[in-house]
């Protein structure tokens, strides 16, 4: 079929292609398509002239309008910092109870503290602050060093077993590894510790009595005679059934045999005083049943 031929029905020229009697027409591009193509090119040319567009060797074309988005972002960040500085200075200067009484300041705390916690604390304590193996929960009101405002602020400032010169220091001895207790004695003590927390270890009264004696000789100096812990030493309460490393037979044996030494970074040089106060208020709100 010749390209010059026209389709008798539509009057369009053909392309010369035919498949089983089906002829391909050489139809024109619709005018609407040409219109939008032309408008798009004109818009691109205008944009190139008015806005930053073309890269050069060491710079780029600035455009007639002189718009610089980097400068705009920097100006917005500076404005946000200035606005934040007003209420951040107030938070830095006030005690936590006064901040809690200030509705406007608490609005800033509620907007800012969750993100601050997520960026700095959630990696260990979890996004919902419920902790995990080796990382204490912050929502159960079982505190190693104390849950009052000043204690939490100090823990945030200096950390635990951190390089900070004022760090809180706590370590559980490795009673098995260092030969202070044999494996059978460790199992006996573990049964007694489970009984303190109200767990049924299945141990006989005689075994629990033996465990109590071993506990008094080896553990009570830190955990107390009743096992309720000592916050001055960071020694956990063993009677509340809240466990950092687990309360199973295996977990307790591993803890007693090999010891434990938790670690928390010191935030004094990484977060401002105002930011640490934001975190302290947020953490205490979690322990009081606040947003999680």
Automatic annotation (TrEMBL):
<feature type="binding site" description="covalent">
    <location>
        <position position="222"/>
    </location>
    <ligand>
        <name>heme c 2</name>
    </ligand>
</feature>
<dbReference type="InterPro" id="IPR004678">
    <property type="entry name" value="Cyt_c_oxidase_cbb3_su3"/>
</dbReference>
<keyword id="KW-0349">Heme</keyword>
<comment type="pathway">
    <text>Energy metabolism; oxidative phosphorylation.</text>
</comment>
<keyword id="KW-1133">Transmembrane helix</keyword>
<keyword id="KW-0679">Respiratory chain</keyword>
<feature type="binding site" description="axial binding residue">
    <location>
        <position position="223"/>
    </location>
    <ligand>
        <name>heme c 2</name>
    </ligand>
</feature>
<feature type="binding site" description="covalent">
    <location>
        <position position="121"/>
    </location>
    <ligand>
        <name>heme c 1</name>
    </ligand>
</feature>
<dbReference type="GO" id="GO:0009055">
    <property type="term" value="F:electron transfer activity"/>
</dbReference>
<keyword id="KW-1003">Cell membrane</keyword>
<keyword id="KW-0479">Metal-binding</keyword>
<feature type="binding site" description="axial binding residue">
    <location>
        <position position="172"/>
    </location>
    <ligand>
        <name>heme c 2</name>
    </ligand>
</feature>
<keyword id="KW-0472">Membrane</keyword>
<keyword id="KW-0812">Transmembrane</keyword>
<dbReference type="GO" id="GO:1902600">
    <property type="term" value="P:proton transmembrane transport"/>
</dbReference>
<dbReference type="InterPro" id="IPR036909">
    <property type="entry name" value="Cyt_c-like_dom_sf"/>
</dbReference>
<feature type="binding site" description="axial binding residue">
    <location>
        <position position="264"/>
    </location>
    <ligand>
        <name>heme c 1</name>
    </ligand>
</feature>
<keyword id="KW-0997">Cell inner membrane</keyword>
<feature type="binding site" description="axial binding residue">
    <location>
        <position position="125"/>
    </location>
    <ligand>
        <name>heme c 1</name>
    </ligand>
</feature>
<feature type="domain" description="Cytochrome c">
    <location>
        <begin position="108"/>
        <end position="197"/>
    </location>
</feature>
<comment type="subunit">
    <text>Component of the cbb3-type cytochrome c oxidase.</text>
</comment>
<dbReference type="GO" id="GO:0020037">
    <property type="term" value="F:heme binding"/>
</dbReference>
<feature type="transmembrane region" description="Helical">
    <location>
        <begin position="32"/>
        <end position="50"/>
    </location>
</feature>
<dbReference type="Pfam" id="PF13442">
    <property type="entry name" value="Cytochrome_CBB3"/>
</dbReference>
<feature type="binding site" description="covalent">
    <location>
        <position position="219"/>
    </location>
    <ligand>
        <name>heme c 2</name>
    </ligand>
</feature>
<comment type="function">
    <text>C-type cytochrome. Part of the cbb3-type cytochrome c oxidase complex.</text>
</comment>
<dbReference type="GO" id="GO:0016491">
    <property type="term" value="F:oxidoreductase activity"/>
</dbReference>
<keyword id="KW-0813">Transport</keyword>
<keyword id="KW-0375">Hydrogen ion transport</keyword>
<dbReference type="InterPro" id="IPR050597">
    <property type="entry name" value="Cytochrome_c_Oxidase_Subunit"/>
</dbReference>
<dbReference type="InterPro" id="IPR009056">
    <property type="entry name" value="Cyt_c-like_dom"/>
</dbReference>
<keyword id="KW-0560">Oxidoreductase</keyword>
<dbReference type="InterPro" id="IPR038414">
    <property type="entry name" value="CcoP_N_sf"/>
</dbReference>
<feature type="domain" description="Cytochrome c">
    <location>
        <begin position="206"/>
        <end position="287"/>
    </location>
</feature>
<keyword id="KW-0406">Ion transport</keyword>
<feature type="binding site" description="covalent">
    <location>
        <position position="124"/>
    </location>
    <ligand>
        <name>heme c 1</name>
    </ligand>
</feature>
<keyword id="KW-0408">Iron</keyword>
<dbReference type="Pfam" id="PF14715">
    <property type="entry name" value="FixP_N"/>
</dbReference>
<dbReference type="Pfam" id="PF00034">
    <property type="entry name" value="Cytochrom_C"/>
</dbReference>
<dbReference type="GO" id="GO:0046872">
    <property type="term" value="F:metal ion binding"/>
</dbReference>
<comment type="similarity">
    <text>Belongs to the CcoP / FixP family.</text>
</comment>
<dbReference type="InterPro" id="IPR032858">
    <property type="entry name" value="CcoP_N"/>
</dbReference>
């Amino acid at each position: 079929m010749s390209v010059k031929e026209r389709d008798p029905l539509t009057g369009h020229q053909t392309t010369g292609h035919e498949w089983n009697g089906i002829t391909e027409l050489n139809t024109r591009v619709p005018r609407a398509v040409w219109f939008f193509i032309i408008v798009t090119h004109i818009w691109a040319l205008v944009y190139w002239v008015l806005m930053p567009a073309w890269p050069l060797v060491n710079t780029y074309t600035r455009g007639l309008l002189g718009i610089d988005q980097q400068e705009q972002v920097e100006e917005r960040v500076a404005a946000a910092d200035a606005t934040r500085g007003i209420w951040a200075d107030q938070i830095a200067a006030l005690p936590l109870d006064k901040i809690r009484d200030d509705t406007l300041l608490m609005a800033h705390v509620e907007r800012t503290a969750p993100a601050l916690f997520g960026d700095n604390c959630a990696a260990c304590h979890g996004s919902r602050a419920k902790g995990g193996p080796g990382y204490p929960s912050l929502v159960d009101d079982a505190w190693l060093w104390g849950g009052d405002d000043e204690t939490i602020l100090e823990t945030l400032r200096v950390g635990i077993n951190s390089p900070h010169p004022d760090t809180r220091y706590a370590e559980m001895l490795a009673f098995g590894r260092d030969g202070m207790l044999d494996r059978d004695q460790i199992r006996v003590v573990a049964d007694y510790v489970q009984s303190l927390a109200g767990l049924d270890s299945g141990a006989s009264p005689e075994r629990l009595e033996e465990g109590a004696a071993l506990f008094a000789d080896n553990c009570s100096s830190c955990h107390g005679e009743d096992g309720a812990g000592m916050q001055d030493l960071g020694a956990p309460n063993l009677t509340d059934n809240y466990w950092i490393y687990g309360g199973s037979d295996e977990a307790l044996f591993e803890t007693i045999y090999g010891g434990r030494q938790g670690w928390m970074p010191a935030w004094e040089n990484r977060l401002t005083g105002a930011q640490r106060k934001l975190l302290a208020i947020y953490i205490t709100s979690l322990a009081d049943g606040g947003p999680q």
